[in-house]
Amino acid sequence: MNAEQSRLKDLTWKKWGPYVSDRQWGTIREDYSANGDAWNYITHDMARSKAYRWGEEGIAGICDDDQTVCFSVALWNKKDPIIKERYFGLTNPEGNHGEDVKELYYYLDNTPTHSYMKTLYKYPQQSYPYQWLVDENKRRGRNDPEFELIDTGILNNDEYFDVFTEYAKNTQDDILIKITINNRSMNDCELNVLPTIWFRNTWAWGYDNYLPELTADSHGVIEVYHNKLGQLWVNGEGSPDILFCDNETNNPKLYNYTDGKPYYKDGINNYIVNGEDTVNPKKTGTKAAINYDIKVKAKDTYTIRLRFSLNAKNGFDDFDTIFNARVAEADEFYKGIQQNNPNPDSVLVQRQAFAGMLWTKQFYYFDINHWLNGDPAEPKPPAERKNARNSKWQHFNARDIISMPDKWEYPWFASWDLAFHCLALANIDMDLAKNQLMLLVRVWYQHPNGELPAYEWDFGDANPPVHARVTWEIYQKDKLANDGKGDTVFLERIFHKLMLDFTWWVNRKDAAGNNIFEGGFLGLDNIGVFDRNAHLPMGEHLEQADGTSWMAMYSLNLLRIAAELASYNKAYSDIASKFFEHFIYIAGAMANLGENSQGLWDDQDGFFYDQLRLNDNTTQKMRLRSVVGLIPLFAAEILDADDIMNNPIFHNRMKWFSDNRPDLAGLVSRWNETKGNGKHLISLLRGYRMKSLLKYMLDENEFLSDYGIRSVSKYHLNNPYSVSVNGVEFSVKYTPAESDSGLFGGNSNWRGPIWMPINYMLIESLQRFYQYYGDDFKIECPTGSGVFMNLNEVANELYSRLSGIFLRDKTGKRAVFGNYDKIQSDPNFKDHVLFYEYFDGDNGRGVGASHQTGWSGLIVNCLYKP
Predict the structure, then answer these.
(1) Using an 8 Å Cβ cutoff, are 86 and 57 in contact?
(2) Which of 19, 26, 103, 680 has the most neighbouring CB atoms within 10 Å?
(3) In the predicted model, is pLDDT for residue 593 greater than 60?
């Protein structure tokens, strides 16, 4: 067991971590408007002057696990109109493709206990082009690309600083901080580097008037005192000047209201940039910055060292020794994790993906009851807020460290994103993965009716029900790592809560009671011909191939868990039988069973489609070939003979269906037949339907790209799908990159790009089918190539294509970087990888949120087989 693995057994090592958000302004949590316009209630320009209610933000920020004290890095290049204290980006209305951060920063390294962390921010030496970025993106339309910082040319002559921020823990409460500034330009340049520490404002809301304090001692050290944490000190090498203000809202500036307070949150900014008398000469406050006013010579490096600890006398004699030890231990930890990964470039990409997963852990605090009703010391919220978004979730009360999709663009959890995060995190921190899965089924998250919260924008929206599948995968992985001893306590606890969620789906998302499910957009944003959450004008409703398939999958996942638990407790035998019946009836509904049935399978095309159910109970197929029609592949489960024969109730019920409902039994895989390996397959698809779907999926003129499986078939590039509903024409064409639609904000596109979680699940489903069919079952891959592969070989081919998004090709380029020559070839760019939200279906270029190291972190499982 190496040093980092040993530290993982002690939770106190996670007390401090990268839990500060990249963006708190513009979030739902901070929005107290009457109309729910979160983007304009607190803007980027207001953020430096506004004390937040629910969380904090910063560059390369860290805090304790209750975000009592925060630390981050601020910078000023002597030319900007403001200090760079937070990352700048466009709001959803400003961006031609929705909200988008306009900074260049990278998460380079991190360990699960955050014993060592490293991040990079590229700060321009010229005045940052805030207004230009806003104006140019506003000018562009949805068919134009986004205008990025690198498009301005401001970095062309290397006129920027590379600011590396590293943290190394000596002990749980002794954190060494190193800020390394590389001047990449040919000119000497001045810079203010402002390591900043502050208290989250907990005293202004009327619940607790305790006021913590930062003060400067006689040796230039910041003394930090809070009654929850006790005494701490920040020691900055060189005894530079220390500036103090308070983490208080500047009411005179923002609201033209004089409150008599002398120092505000923006005090350090106003002092540094404008020379105003806005810092406390008594050297005390609730926010402080150590001001390193430096000059960095051309092509040279300047290093700043700090120490944040319980002992004011902790200095710098052992600083480098400790730092080097933590770096070596991080290398040792990842060497063990990556020992089966022989490709150095793959090792580099994978380690940065792990780093991003760990850097995007965030303190998330949100009490819906307080948010809706307001705080005692604040003005009463507008009456309209009583019926605001999430008003039916007044039990919700989160105060946890959560893995976020992207701490700038999506600084709030999303339920199905979070499940996929756990699959990646389980490789390096199994306890974290299990705890994150458990989080959303706790009583202060899960709705009393059983529904899991979707995401902050609307907790009541339905995300695909993937938690049971991920729970089973993580249980199996953990069981394998522990010599066959599974964590049945974890499995049983989450299983009972997932049964409640399953019942909610059955009761709320099957409008006709026919086992065909709706569910709304189900995380696939604009994939349909119209808004799948919308109420259609004549009362029609959409019956969804994906919603129904997700529920078939959910049934099988819960069946599989119940079968496992039944080996420990026979009471679960009945429950396994219950979910088998659910699955069978869903399969019948999907498959056009019976003379008058109108299922989702289309015999003519050999594909699954959504369908519109009209008021006269007739249906209209939505003949749009998208991943919606491939999701039935996910509903597959493998059982050993013992899982069935040792469970007589389950076995007898399966036999009953075979004997008494052969019409239903004939629709799905032959569960009563085993292959030579003794495996039973329960799936929505018999061989011929699976082959039909795979023929489309593996066709390079349809779904198969050089970089994975597209979300909409390329067939629709020249053959857009159109449908008329009540005289209104809707159309969808293959759109491989940014969205040309405003649906759901227009910042995500499912009409052609490659999405990592869908590809991952397709690969995993192929591997499940392979467990049953073995080497004898082969499919042409690519379709029409004359090359036949077994299903495991097809899965490996998809692994390889997905990996090709990030790995250097024969010319040394990475597809994810697109056509930016500087990023592709410059040694200070080319090995710093971003993990985007999704990827261009034609060329693999990264698209959407640029720090979506959440579910795109699944690439760690694709670069090699763990």
Answers:
(1) yes
(2) 19
(3) no
Please give the single-letter amino acid code of residue 826. Answer: D
Residue 233 and residue 221 in contact, taking contact as beta carbons nearer than 8 Å: yes
User: CB under 8 Å to 453, separation ≥6 — which residues?
Assistant: 393, 396, 415, 440, 445, 446, 447, 459, 460
Beta strands in 312-360 (DSSP E): none
Question: What is the C-alpha separation between 716 and 181, in angstroms, rounded?
Answer: 49
User: Would the CA dihedral through 587, 590, 591, 594 be positive or negative?
Assistant: positive
Question: Which pLDDT score is estimated for 595?
Answer: 44
* C-alpha–C-alpha distance, residues 18 and 427, integer Å: 19
* pLDDT over threshold 60, residue 597: no
Read off the pLDDT of residues 256-279 as tens digits, 9 standing for 90 and up: 999 999 999 999 999 999 999 999
- 3-state SS class at 110: strand
Residue among 155, 156, 165, 147 at smallest CA distance from 128:
155
Give the residue range(s) of CATH 2.70.98 domains in the chain.
3-337
- CATH topology for 3-337 is Beta-galactosidase; Chain A, domain 5 (2.70.98)
HSE-up of residue 690 (Cα within 13 Å, Cβ side): 25
CA dist 752 and 707 (Å) reads 12
C-alpha span between 770 and 333 (Å, rounded)? 33
The pLDDT mean for the chain works out to 94
What does the pLDDT read at residue 620? 85
Q: Which two tokens stand for residue 746?
A: 């227009």
DSSP state letter for 625: -
- Dist. CA 120–CA 107, nearest whole Å: 7
Q: The pTM is what?
A: 0.96
Sign of the CA dihedral with 445 first, then 446, 447, and 452 last: positive
pLDDT beyond 80 at 779: yes
**pLDDT score recorded for residue 594:** 45
How far apart are the C-alpha atoms of 608 and 92, rounded to whole Å?
Answer: 34
- Which amino acid makes up residue 385? R
Q: Are 573 and 561 in contact (CB under 8 A)?
A: no
Rounded to whole angstroms, the Cα distance separating 15 from 309 reads 13
Query: DSSP 3-state assignment of 397?
Result: strand
Q: Based on C-alpha coordinates, what's the Rg of the chain? A: 28
Residue 778 exposed, middle or buried by CB count within 10 Å (0-12, 13-18, 19+): middle
pLDDT at 814 exceeding the cut of 90: yes
The answer to whether 265 and 341 have CB atoms below 8 angstroms apart is no
* Residue in 322, 349, 351, 324 with CA at minimum distance from that of residue 336: 351
The amino acid sitting at 744 is F
Q: Phi, psi (5° rounding) for residue 289?
A: -135, 140
Q: What's the pLDDT score for residue 596?
A: 46
